[in-house]
Amino acid sequence: MANSSGKKTSSSSKNTKKTSNAKNNKPSRNTNIDYRKESEMFHEIGIIAFFIVMVILFLCNFGIIGPFGNAISTFLFGVFGLTAYIAPIALFIGATFWYANMGNPHALRKLISGIFLFILIGIICDLMAHNATDIIEYDFKKLYEACSQNKNGGGILAGSLNHLLYHSLGF
């Protein structure tokens, strides 16, 4: 085509699109959705795996798994005492509650309250079994052995706190 200046211009140069690199570097909406789906899938798989571990730990406390289960049961009773029966269930409920409410400060407060309640139940179990109250000088080995062999008390966790509270309050 002839221009008023007499130069010929091509019509194809007017129709070319300029692409910006900034637009191409942004993640598309589909990748964000895919990432969210993968994250949800990861959490669901984690919850299922944690449920399987919880069932195995729970069955270990009743001697169903065998010698390996008895060793795990001895360890659980040494650490948690009588609350070892509910410890796997409490851990599973706490983990699923955490996954479901991740980032919620109110949920975190409730989870910490649940942990505190679990420890208080262990202290009450230890008070009823007299494991930590009978020990004059603190010895975690004696406390662990008494709880793991007799399957009572509060274990090292609650028994240690019970011993500290019992002797520091002057009983």
Q: What would you say this structure looks like, in words?
A:
It is a single chain. With 171 residues, the chain is mainly alpha-helical. It is built from seven helices and no strands. Helix 4 (87-100) runs antiparallel to helix 5 (105-129).
**What portion of residues belong to β-strands?**
under 5%
* pLDDT < 50 runs, ≥5 residues: none
Largest sheet data:
none
Number of continuous helical runs: 7
**What global shape is seen?**
flat
Helical content stands at 55-70%
H/E series, N to C?
HHHHHHH
Rg over CA atoms, rounded to whole Å, is 31 Å
Instruction: Report the count of strand segments.
Output: 0
Structural class: mainly alpha
Distance between the ends: 107 Å
What value does the average pLDDT take?
82
How are the secondary structure elements laid out?
Elements: H1 21-25, H2 29-60, H3 67-80, H4 87-100, H5 105-129, H6 140-150, H7 155-168
Helix pairs in contact: 2-3, 2-4, 3-6, 3-7, 4-5, 5-7, 6-7
